[in-house]
């Protein structure tokens, strides 16, 4: 796999850093997540393919253990508020001094500088600060965040993984590590570059929810079908729009022009009425194989059995029977291989990892009896 041989220490976080770590693991990196001790269960639902080491970082001895792990690794991924790592003596300057090849990735909401750098926040705050939230929502309604997809995962976890891969690539030339300051505000905004760059096209001149791509246009929206399901319509170009109208059994001559914005309300009413006359599957039989850009709105459970997804193996079931998306994109020679076994228990790999990183058996036992580390291999064997 593309990242085979890369060793990553991931400090346990909430959502974006775990996703970043999972991407790296899917593409072959060895990802060791550092968990707290004395917690019943992890909140990391993106733990696929990772190992878990449990350390009580309130103890200086655990901090020393973590330091040893970090300086013998390729990447450190930390999701804490600015200053937390420095307080423990594990800031990038300290670690890069000991391992100049280290890539030190800091994944935060607001970045490492600026007046918000130390503030708490979540996806919705970062999205708001990126400017993008102001554009998301239906006409005459308040802004709505599209789950926590944009800042946490696209602008945060994925963008940070991209930064890590870039730094690894650059290190292969320079031999030097570096610090990655991944701000979710900036990552989200960067993902949304199109919104700024396309303003000159007039795509966003109207109010929120009244533009072509933000549910303002009747040919770019979802419609309810007679069985209570939905279809998505994205028939923008005239030739695709013509196929939509044909598939709906309408006559173009009876309809207002596609791009007549003042007629969009009337056109939407017509489409709504017609889509409600057939089931989602019936519309599928009409539109599949055409260029009308009409697809079913599938639920998370339905994706697995759709013939297109099935043909490509786009989703899979792991050993616990859970459906997951296959890692993307597909590399022809060294594709990702998502681990299919269960997620690690907290501390399941503490002993094995510490041994591998050069700790003596006696040292490990001392740390264990002092409550500085936690080992849970037994739980894993039950
Ligand atoms: C699914 C829910 C998650 C939702 C995601 C949400 C929408 C997001 O947007 S996530 C993005 C959050 N932002 C960031 O990550 C930006 C960068 N980070 C931060 O800004 C901050 O870390 C923070 C604001 C997120 C949190 O601040 P906090 O003050 O808590 O922490 P920090 O200042 O960063 O300091 C960290 C301190 O921790 C110490 N530490 C670290 N490691 C260790 C260790 N190994 N040992 C000891 N100590 C350690 C470190 O030293 C720092 O200490 P100091 O402060 O003293 O310096 C989920 C959100 C909540 C979940 C639910 C909840 O947990 C309850 C249940 C739990 C149960 O187990 C499962 C079900 C739950 C209902 C659970 C369900 C879900 O998982 C959640 C809803």
From TrEMBL:
Which is one GO molecular function term here? alpha-methylacyl-CoA racemase activity
Gene Ontology annotations for the cellular component aspect, listed alphabetically: mitochondrion
Pathway(s) it belongs to: Lipid metabolism; bile acid biosynthesis
Q: Gene3D superfamilies annotated for this entry?
A: Crotonobetainyl-coa:carnitine coa-transferase, domain 1, formyl-coa transferase, domain 3
Q: Keyword Isomerase on this protein?
A: yes
Organism the protein comes from? Culter alburnus
EC code: 5.1.99.4
- Member of which family? Belongs to the CoA-transferase III family.
The role this protein plays is: Catalyzes the interconversion of (R)- and (S)-stereoisomers of alpha-methyl-branched-chain fatty acyl-CoA esters. Acts only on coenzyme A thioesters, not on free fatty acids, and accepts as substrates a wide range of alpha-methylacyl-CoAs, including pristanoyl-CoA, trihydroxycoprostanoyl-CoA (an intermediate in bile acid synthesis), and arylpropionic acids like the anti-inflammatory drug ibuprofen (2-(4-isobutylphenyl)propionic acid) but neither 3-methyl-branched nor linear-chain acyl-CoAs.
Instruction: Read off the Pfam families from this record.
Output: CoA_transf_3
Keywords attached to this entry: Isomerase
- The entry's protein name is Alpha-methylacyl-CoA racemase
Q: State the source organism's domain of life.
A: Eukaryota
Give the reaction(s) catalysed. (25R)-3alpha,7alpha,12alpha-trihydroxy-5beta-cholestan-26-oyl-CoA = (25S)-3alpha,7alpha,12alpha-trihydroxy-5beta-cholestan-26-oyl-CoA; a (2S)-2-methylacyl-CoA = a (2R)-2-methylacyl-CoA; (2R,6)-dimethylheptanoyl-CoA = (2S,6)-dimethylheptanoyl-CoA
Biological process (GO) annotations held by this record are: bile acid metabolic process
